[in-house]
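Internal tracking record. Fields below are filled automatically when a chain is submitted to the structure queue. Please do not edit lines marked as system-generated. If the sequence contains nonstandard residues, flag them in the REMARKS field before resubmitting.
Queue: standard
Priority: normal
Entity type: single polypeptide chain
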Amino acid sequence: MKKKINVSAAIVVDNGEILIAQRNREKTAGLMWEFPGGKIEDGETIEQSLVREFKEELNMDIKVGKFFKTAEYDYDFGYITLHVYFAKTLSGRNVNLTAHEKIAWIRPRQFNEYDIAAADVIVVRELLERLRNNSLSLS
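SYSTEM-GENERATED OUTPUT FOLLOWS
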């Protein structure tokens, strides 16, 4: 039986651009791009997990906003349930990377220029679809 892993992620929007982060080359799915976040610890809400992970991994303070989507993906190492929220940066765009290779602030049309991790691809598809249908705004 595969390990089930609950993970939080945030779509951080600033001036119409979205924050993505490149996974550490030494980690599973190394060098793939993702929405920042991480494993949800026991006794922690998704929102608490996001605030903690952003502080630990990017030294970024965020305000968690509305729920966006839950995506599930069956990787070879485990079954991931990815809980995604929108968030705003409270500390600007300056980061101190401790768990990622690099970050990028991108426009939605630029997602196809990045090698996005499989679970995050599900989120990107939904995000782009909602933007195309004008059922979502990044402003």
